[in-house]
Automatic annotation (TrEMBL):
Protein name, per record: DNA-directed RNA polymerase subunit omega
Its job: Promotes RNA polymerase assembly. Latches the N- and C-terminal regions of the beta' subunit thereby facilitating its interaction with the beta and alpha subunits.
Keyword Membrane part of the UniProt annotation: no
Class of the enzyme per the UniProt entry, highest EC level: transferase
PANTHER family: DNA-DIRECTED RNA POLYMERASE SUBUNIT OMEGA (PTHR34476)
GO cellular component: DNA-directed RNA polymerase complex
GO molecular function: DNA binding; DNA-directed RNA polymerase activity
InterPro entries attached to this UniProt entry: DNA-dir_RNA_pol_omega, Pol_omega/Rpo6/RPB6, RPB6/omega-like_sf
Assembly and interaction partners: The RNAP catalytic core consists of 2 alpha, 1 beta, 1 beta' and 1 omega subunit. When a sigma factor is associated with the core the holoenzyme is formed, which can initiate transcription.
Length: 147
């Protein structure tokens, strides 16, 4: 086939800007593995896409919908109803031994027990005395580097 020109395609798609967008999308589709509707004739994908548009072997509406889907950033998905979430949450069971150990841990923290980092025993202490935090002085960061 002779070289394809933009004038051949303008007869099918009158807007040059739309033609460029559709030809580019069709080229991407060909690169992704979409079947060709014309012979390759050692041409590159953009030339093949223009030839397909000029010969009306592809549907411009189908290319347009693919282009729009490719440019969308937020695609609305169907979400299950609330009843489905309630049913799923009821299926998940926590073993009894894990629940018991979690309850024991809550009791330890509620009593105000603290555990020292050196592996020492836990001792009773009020919650206010459990942690000593040194104040950070934002005006003198070099002082914190010395610590």
């Amino acid at each position: 086939m002779a070289r394809v020109t933009v004038e051949d395609c303008i007869e099918r798609i009158p807007n040059r800007f739309e033609l460029v967008l559709l030809a580019a999308q069709r080229s991407r589709d060909i690169a992704a593995g979409s079947p060709l509707t014309v012979d390759r004739d050692n041409d590159k994908n953009p030339v093949i896409s223009l030839r397909e548009i000029a010969e009306t072997t592809v549907d411009p509406e189908q290319i347009t919908s693919g282009l729009i889907q490719g440019l969308q950033k937020h695609v609305e998905a169907d979400e299950p109803e609330d009843d489905a979430f309630d049913a799923l949450s009821g299926q998940r069971q926590i073993p009894a031994d894990i629940r018991e150990s979690a309850n024991e841990a809550e009791e330890v923290f509620a009593d105000g027990l603290t555990v020292h980092g050196d592996g020492g025993e836990a001792e009773d202490a009020p919650a206010e005395q459990a942690v000593a935090v040194e104040a950070f002085d934002p005006d003198n960061p070099a002082e914190d580097m010395d610590r």
